[in-house]
């Protein structure tokens, strides 16, 4: 028999939020009471980038996020193979490895 006192959480996902925001750089800072995750989109050849989203977490939630990401990466790699993280992102001179366009 199910616990009738068990609460259910309904989470709403609006169309705008469901589209998501692309990010290819995350900057993480922290104080004694919070972790700040800034998600940035860097474009090749553009020396300026804007923070597209900022998430502020308590240290406890940051650790839960870390553990959830580890779990999900493990599951991903079981299904699709290892994620290559030995290729560090070279941000200077903002070369993303593609051809350089000229006008």
Explain the overall architecture.
The chain has 103 residues and is of the alpha+beta class. The chain has a domain at 15-80. The protein is 25% helix and 20% strand. The protein is built from 2 helices and 3 strands. It starts with 14 loop residues before the first helix and ends in a 23-residue tail after the last helix. Residues 92-96 and 99-103 have low confidence and may be disordered.
Task: Give a quick rundown of the structure.
The protein has helices at 15-18, 59-80; strands at residues 25-30, 35-41, 50-57. It contains two helices and three strands.
Structural key phrases:
alpha+beta; 103 residues; extended
Radius of gyration: 19 Å
Structural class: alpha+beta
Strand adjacency order, main sheet = 1-2-3
Strand percent estimate = 15-25%
Low-confidence stretches: 92-96, 99-103
**Alpha plus pi helix count:** 2
What composes the largest sheet?
3 strands, antiparallel
Helicity level: 25-40%
Can you give the mean pLDDT? 86
């Amino acid at each position: 028999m199910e616990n009738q006192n068990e609460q259910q959480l309904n989470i709403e996902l609006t169309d705008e939020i469901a589209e998501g925001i692309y990010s290819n750089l995350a900057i993480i800072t922290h104080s004694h009471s919070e972790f700040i995750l800034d998600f940035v989109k860097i474009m090749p050849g553009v020396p300026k980038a804007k923070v597209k989203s900022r998430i502020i977490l308590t240290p406890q939630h940051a650790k839960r996020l870390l553990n959830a990401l580890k779990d999900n990466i493990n599951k991903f790699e079981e299904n699709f193979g290892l994620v290559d993280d030995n290729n560090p992102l070279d941000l200077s001179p903002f070369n993303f490895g593609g051809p350089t366009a000229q006008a």
